[in-house]
Amino acid sequence: MKKLSNQKPLGKLSGTLLLVGAGKMGSAMLDGWLARGLKAKQTSVIEPQPHKSIKALARRGVTLNAKPGPKAKADAAAIVIAVKPQTAPEAVPPLGLYVGKSTLVLSIMAGRTIGFLEKTLPAGVAVVRAMPNTPAAIGRGITVAVANANVTVRQRKLATDLLSAIGKVEWVKDEALIDAVTALSGSGPAYVFLLAEAMTKAGVAAGLPADLASRLARETVSGSGELLHRSELDAALLRQNVTSPGGTTAAALNVLMGPGGFDELLTKAIAAATKRSRDLAG
After folding, report:
1. Can you tell me whether residue 168 is helix, strand or coil?
2. What are the start-end ranges of the E strands in the chain?
3. What is the pairing mode between strands 167-171 and 141-147?
4. Which parts of the chain have pLDDT scores under 70?
5. Could you report the per-residue pLDDT of 166-213, keeping only the tens digit for each?
6. Distance (Å, rounded) from C-alpha 209 to C-alpha 225?
7. 3-state class of 102 per DSSP?
């Protein structure tokens, strides 16, 4: 059994943590941090339109929309930027007031590069750029992160602890990979939801009542995802285990895996999303 200290990795954080943007992803992260031992009194949030849940946390000690004081730089262990990327030119520059010599800046803004943050914030800033996905809302996300040369081993661990609050974390060395990550895992939940949607429509076309088709598709997709999550087998072997030679599943897969089928369509889709991510990043 793990020790309590390992279960509460943020309980010994020195300094304060500033969350900029408390929408769905930011709020999910904040909930995870507090569950992992971060003290409310160490936490500040900048959110012009705070949800009632954020206001409730403010009553528990989280600082909401406070102006930076004289100790802001010394206290800011980390700044997590979770605003919409289109607001970055206005939202990011004022954060320089909070950046001290040991401050980690962790950005989950899509399309905003490390270079953008380095140019916008004080020289020598330690930056981690990360791309989470929406299952983070239930603590089952997957995030890929990349650090600039200023990030120390200690800051990298802090970034891992912060991102682990919403799911698993992978690190890459090449920032250019983040565009493909955005296309695969960042946009990926939409592909899975589309699968459930398409299965529902296909079930109705095959004669099932719409409500039954919807329930069957939903439970099949979510249950299969959970099986994949728990199993030590890879996806290809799990698929093969469901497929009897000459059976119904094989008949369906002959269509899905044939020319112009699922593999080819997804390859094209992810390539298109990767290109769009690069275009947005400039």
Report:
1. strand
2. 16-20, 43-46, 63-64, 76-81, 104-107, 126-131, 141-147, 167-171
3. parallel
4. 1-7, 70-74, 282
5. 999 999 999 999 999 999 999 999 999 999 999 999 999 999 999 999
6. 24
7. coil
